Design the sequence.
């Protein structure tokens, strides 16, 4: 158990819908990262937050948005869902937001878009 | 650019050594990492190497880094069936901590 929790574990929804994925980082970690793992694209970095502020952005679609709240949990919002958004979404946290800070990964949320 | 390449599959016999190779493109990465993903699980950091090192050994794991060729390898000695998993090489360009992953190498260990 990494100490990072993600809810829900599984999500099944229809095209055009909107969903919210939630992540609680390990106690004491200030930085949260979101990654998408799909068969087509592999494991891709989406976005990073550090202490409530956006720190780095990857290949995140405009239909996707995220935020980190004052209690440091984070939410990833996916809207106007398409079949190709079906993937495993991982959250990771680290104490700082630097390359020498180990990232601890949650178990992921599996999103299926029908 | 940011790109990491790995071979997709490796099959070895239990007790043999496994070597998984990776190439990366961004020379600004100060750390390079190896992660392990077991079926149905998240990723777990196995080991990492600082970019000014050539080699790092950690029990059964040996990481070799050729910075000139931007080539990284992970050697697992005395491979066990429990080592069967997907292994990801990753770089962290810049100073934000974001990870750029390779496609992952599936390691199959036959008894």
Sequence:
């Amino acid at each position: 158990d990494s100490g990072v929790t993600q809810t829900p574990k599984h999500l099944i929804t229809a095209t055009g819908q909107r969903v919210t994925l939630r992540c609680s980082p390990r106690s004491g970690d200030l930085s949260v990262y979101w990654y998408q793992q799909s068969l087509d694209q592999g494991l891709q970095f989406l976005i990073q937050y550090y202490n409530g502020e956006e720190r780095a952005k990857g290949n995140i679609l405009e239909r996707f948005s995220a935020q980190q709240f004052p209690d440091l949990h984070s939410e990833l919002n996916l809207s106007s869902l398409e079949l190709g958004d079906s993937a495993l979404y991982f959250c990771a946290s680290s104490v700082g937001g630097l390359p020498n800070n180990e990232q601890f990964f949650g178990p992921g949320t599996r999103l299926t878009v029908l | 650019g940011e790109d990491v390449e790995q071979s997709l599959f490796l099959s070895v016999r239990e007790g043999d050594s496994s070597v998984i190779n990776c190439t990366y493109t961004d020379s600004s990465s100060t750390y390079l990492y190896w992660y392990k993903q077991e079926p149905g699980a998240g990723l777990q950091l196995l080991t990492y190497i600082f970019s000014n090192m050539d080699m790092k050994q950690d029990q059964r794991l040996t990481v070799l880094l050729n910075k000139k060729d931007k080539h990284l390898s992970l050697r697992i000695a005395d491979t066990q069936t429990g080592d069967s998993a997907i292994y990801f090489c990753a770089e962290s360009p810049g100073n934000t901590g974001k990870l750029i992953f390779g496609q992952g190498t599936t390691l199959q260990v036959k008894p």
